[in-house]
Protein: Electron transfer DM13
Amino acid sequence: MHWILRLLSHGIALAIGFALGIYMLPILTAPDSPDAAALTASAEGATYTGSFTRDLAGSDFLHWGTGSISLSPQQITHMGALAPGPDYKLYLTPEFVEDEAGFEAIKAASVRIGDVEMFDGLILPISEGINIEDYTTVVIWCEAFGEFITAAKYR
Structure:
């Protein structure tokens, strides 16, 4: 009986350690975010702006974003914070969504801009051939777990 309790307690400790590792690894390996001056300069002259908020239907205490998003035909700048996590992607979508089901319904009509590896602001280039006028919303999505993080309507 004693060995069953040990096995159970060690299994629980292993599961907690694994979960913490999945959560902490992106934080530990994230490159440095651009400084405030670089973010401000990148956002100047933006064609569109929007805001991430924590009060979206698909956001919760582990999946959220705050701050402003600025778009020009060449790049997207985020000044704010994102909940850290693995395998985040930034998408442009043709309509505003605020949860997993909404995004999955329009994912095929959306375009992936790039990887989100920083959680305190970022600058992502927009590939040639992508027209921001064809979309209305920026979505941050966790590809690995199919989790909605946040969204901001920019037009």
